[in-house]
Model the fold of this input.
Amino acid sequence: MATPDTATSADGSRADGRITVLVCQPDAEVRRLLCSLLESDTRIRVAGSVADGRSALEFLRHTSPDVILMDNQMPGMDGFETTRRIMEDTPRPIVLCAAAGTVDHAIFRSLEAGAVACIERPDPASAPAVAAHLLQTVRLMSEVKVVRRWARATASRRAGEQPSGTGVGRRVVGIGASTGGPPVLQTLLAGLPQDFPMPVLVVQHIAKGFLAGMVEWLRHTSGLRVHIGAHGMLPQPGRVYLAPDDFHMSVGNQGQIVLGKDGGPDELRPSVAKLFRSLAESCGKDAIGVLLTGMGRDGAAELKLMKDRGAVTIAQDRDTSIVHGMPGAAIALGGATYVLPAERIAGTLVALAQPHFPKQRN
Done:
């Protein structure tokens, strides 16, 4: 069994005011790099580092770090099983740290099991922004209260739950999500029927290189046809389109997908705000906007704009959000027609697809 590489306090507490982190990484060189990077931030202390999932579980029997930084690919007990066991026995915020471009469905299974974020693993050649993002994520996730697991949606539906598909006025659904978004998005999509009568456009903030793996995972687990959006593509009912890495995705006047890189070099890309603004301007009342869990305010003002233009808007509630920043900001602005827990959003979208569902609720 691996043993901790670094010194730790008896209980892993913040006696010195610093955030304590357990590093779980099978590669010794990478493990040392991560520990060194974390210790470079005076607000963070490495409580310990281990090489595999079983050693992490043993470590947690005696020590209570604020955050676990963990690779998803480990010998013996992989990241999914380790995450599942931790969330059952000693719940902690778990940040998955994987090599860029990793196409591994288990990453997203681990997010389903309770991991709160997935970030790119830095290496000696990484840009400073990669390391800075890791440190920021660890700091922010240390404040997250691990939320209860909600019931998973099932792909099977009774005939009475199917939308009619006729007389539908609203033409497109736009969804924005960030931290904690993938498992909520999976729950939502798994709750939609294959003949859902509107296309679904999604902006999900995720580390560069992981999008292809997420698309495959969503396609496999939801039963829907999930694609990476392409410039000029005309979205089809019952299909899901995710914004590609490093491109804004919006909707043109003819309903086509428009990709672009407009904005400054430091602008968040893809941006939920860009998608929602285009839906407000191009679709008006014929759109539905959904803002899910995430840090910051991306899309909050634009969800309000969609509502002002007659669209139905939905914000995820605080209890089921890993981070309530984005939906909370939209709610504070008065931008949400409905505030819903994660497990009720799909059913509401199905109901909204019915021709006589009321547009607004006071």
Notes: The two ends are 59 Å apart (CA to CA). Residues 98 and 121 are 5 Å apart (CA to CA). Residues 1-10, 148-169 have pLDDT under 50 and may be disordered. The chain has two domains: 19-141, 163-352.
